[in-house]
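Justification of resources, computational component.

The compute hours requested in this renewal are based largely on the per-chain cost of generating structure records like the one below. Each record pairs the submitted sequence with a full structure-token output. That output is archived, and it is also reused by downstream analysis tasks.
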Amino acid sequence: DDPRGCRGMKFRLRDRLERPFPDKLVGEDYEAVLADQRNGSGSYHVKNEAGPRAATCNSQGLAAGYPCQNVDLLSMLDVDELAAALGESSEDELNDIWGWTDPSSKREFSIVGMYRGTAFVEITDAYNPIYLGALPTKTESSGWRDIKVMANYALIVSEASNHGMQIFDLDRLLTASGSTVWSEDAHYDEFGNAHNIFVNEDSGFAYAVGSNTCAGGLHIIDVNDPMNPTFAGCFAEDGYVHDVQCVIYNGPDTTYSGREICFSSNEDSVAIVDVSVKSDPQILSNIQYNSAQYTHQGWLTEDQAYFIFDDELDEYYGISSKTRTHVMDVRNLRNMLYVGYHNGRTRAIDHNLYVKGDFVYQANYRAGLNVLKIEDMTSATFDEAGYFDIFPNSNSANFNAAWSTFPYHESGVITISGVEQGLFVVKFNSQEETTHPSSAPTSTPSMSPVVVFTPSPVITPTSAPATSGTCNDSPLRIKVRKNNGSVKTRSCFWVGNRDTLNRCKLEGISSICPKTCGTCSPCIDGQARMKFPWRGKLITRDCTWVARKQTSLRCAIEGMKDSCRVTCNNC
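The structure output for this chain reads:
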């Protein structure tokens, strides 16, 4: 009678908060509460912030009423606001979250899992999110709902009985207005319930896990044509899989270069599986680690050399008195090694984590969003770089507050789903990104760093690239002087690594990095999505897909060089 982790309801039901849920600690109502408590002398004033529910993390470590470090609050919507299209209910809570950017307009959207369905919010203006409506659950309500995206389609699974996989065309959001009740565009019913789903957009395959098929292991689906998904295979050898990440492998173990490899969290172990042949997946390695309680979820470092993961119950059972983040060395796929763990600042339970660049973005239940800077993976060494606490009264080991986070929006904003709190849109200000948002986004940065261009010691400076011939970024290194006076030396890779739109707006950057910034005028990549045959399927993609992997091969597709001139060096 001891259900493990998210797989059972009992732990969360024990900690479930009664309504009404905690009040928002930002906005005009919260300002009024502060004024009453402090005889009108409160330090937080909505008029001084960039949006009606925005709050800069101040020197006292507070963003309005939320404890913080290096993370600003841009906006939020509470649970009732997110469930508005579904009607009133006392049952609503949030769970998973994902995101989507329209490749043409670059408009950004948050996709939020809820007890009764899935909510859609436009966050292009992160200070003023627009609620667009919700897609009701396929069958019954459930505290577990998971979403991933394939091209412009959301794929949604749930622990609800006979739910299957809902498929929703995200292009419909581009013309939406008001609180719409949506319907699914297609449905996949080769399984009933599933705990989670992962989509490898590079291969066009989805992996449902924890379902009532394949012994709870990998249920593989071909979603290259998302409106017509087809069953592709099973991996049941290792039993129940709780979460998984699958990649076209480009890591240190060159034996498997170019193959599709999955890294799965399997309750008491981590497994590596070669799924290149969907009808015959092969397990490469599987290891356990000391004091394992519930191996929950993890993500690869960007060089695919290490797998960072969490154990959901080591804090709950008192195995660790602090939030523990674990590391596997996966440089040899057939000989995975446990490196060790990092103990965090609080004793909160860790739930979902994602890696972007040198940072790990963790949703740690009552501790909220925690951001770790990767320092040395050979010793599992991290430094805490920031946090945003959405449950200020406690950091105890209970199953409330931050369920998940999504750090991959091109604008740099991060979203957090709070079980009882709602959707938070925040901005992490790393040591490399020290400016705080002070107003709604404009066409030019409001606090531009001073940029000085100097050649790398081993490279002779060149003039700005010409508009004819092959368009490439300059090999020049860029010295960026920040507002705090520090100077960092960066390359065009840094410009393209994150927040590219704003970095390209800095003085002189676009002339040094024309390929990254798309300023090879008149030579640019087209913004349209193209439909063409690929591996026996008719798929729709844009130039970012061409650039991501196997670029030479993809540029050889008929017509691609003319559509993606910069990516295919056809200027």
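The chain is about 10% helix and 35% strand. The longest helix spans residues 28-37.
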